[in-house]
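Input record, target 12 of the design panel.
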């Protein structure tokens, strides 16, 4: 008598489906706790941002700019950001992006663009 090789696959499949089903039931019991944890985290982050009230151009550059403009913003996939730009060009590029390139608009809030331009122009 030969064994059917498909039977173990069906058993594993059935166990997997059962495990997913029971884990989802367990998650349903905890949905209020999970949702509450997300709301608390959001409120805390908003409060922290509101309390600081300061814009850190260098930190924003480290988070959003170095991936294209390279370490130290000296050039990479994108051009070097230095004093070869004038303030008006830099402001326009940050606010509106640069057409035909990968430079997107809106990386910096409008109220902080001038601070970001000052930081970029201070790089030399």
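The sequence produced for target 12 reads:
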């Amino acid at each position: 008598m030969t064994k059917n090789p498909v039977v173990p696959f069906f058993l594993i499949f059935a166990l997997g489906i059962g495990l997913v089903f029971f884990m989802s039931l367990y998650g349903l019991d905890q949905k209020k706790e999970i949702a509450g944890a997300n709301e608390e985290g959001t409120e805390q982050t908003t409060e922290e941002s509101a309390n600081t009230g300061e814009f850190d151009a260098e930190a924003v550059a480290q988070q959003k700019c170095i991936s294209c403009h390279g370490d130290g913003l000296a050039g990479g996939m994108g051009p070097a950001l230095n004093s070869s730009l004038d303030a008006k060009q830099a402001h326009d590029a940050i606010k509106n992006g640069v057409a035909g390139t990968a430079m997107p608009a809106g990386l910096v809030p409008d109220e902080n663009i001038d601070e970001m331009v000052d930081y970029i122009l201070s790089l030399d």
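The first helix runs from residue 6 to 29.
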